[in-house]
Amino acid sequence: KGANKRMARKNFEAIRLCRSHNLRISENSKALMERFPNDPSVVQKIGNNFFVKGKLQVSHAFGNGYLKEQRFNERLYPIFRAKSPYCGGYVSATPHVEHVSLMDRDEFLILGTDGFWENAEPEVVVELLGHFFHDREILEGNLDQISIDPRRASELLMQYVWLRLHDSIEP
User: Fold this and answer.
1) For 6-28, what is the mean pLDDT?
2) pLDDT digits (tens, 9 = 90+) for 84-113
């Protein structure tokens, strides 16, 4: 029974349920430039990254009110303000929401910040966690239920990201 289950669970599939709002994705930059055609500084490239008005890499955020409304921009010290021309409404706090029903075959759901997903390949993360769960099941002799410490799984993923950031492993 264990060998058959191991073979059946060897391949894990990563299904992305979120959408990145980072401006390095050309469709996000293009959409912002189309919304503000009279503002040549709406998307600025600094180094290898793209920023809204040279300040923020994403087009959706909960904070950053100064990129949403002019009255907040005007209250900042001049050095911190988004520069002229200023149209307001560059950044939205409205999230992209997609409803997805989990299925019986879904084994786990991984929640992570945009910073995590910028440094982690979804397929590798799913493979790591899949094997982590599977190896724990075999060690514990529990082939029908997953008993896992979420903190330990989180530590495993953070070690993976740290190694990726420090060029110790390939993607």
Assistant:
1) 71
2) 998 888 888 887 777 888 888 777 777 777
| pLDDT value of residue 123 | 82
> How many Å apart are CA 123 and CA 14, to the nearest integer?
5
- Exposed/middle/buried for 161, CB within 10 Å: 0-12, 13-18, 19+? middle
Collapsing DSSP to helix, strand or coil, 60 comes out as strand
Cα within 13 Å of Cα(125), Cβ side = 24
Nearest-angstrom CA–CA distance, 30 and 32: 5
Q: Are 126 and 12 in contact (CB under 8 A)?
A: yes
d(CA 9, CA 130): 8
Amino acid identity at 128: L
Specify the length of the chain in residues: 171
C-alpha span between 86 and 73 (Å, rounded): 9
pLDDT at 94: 84
- Report the distance separating Cα 90 and Cα 65, nearest Å: 10
Predicted structure pTM score: 0.61
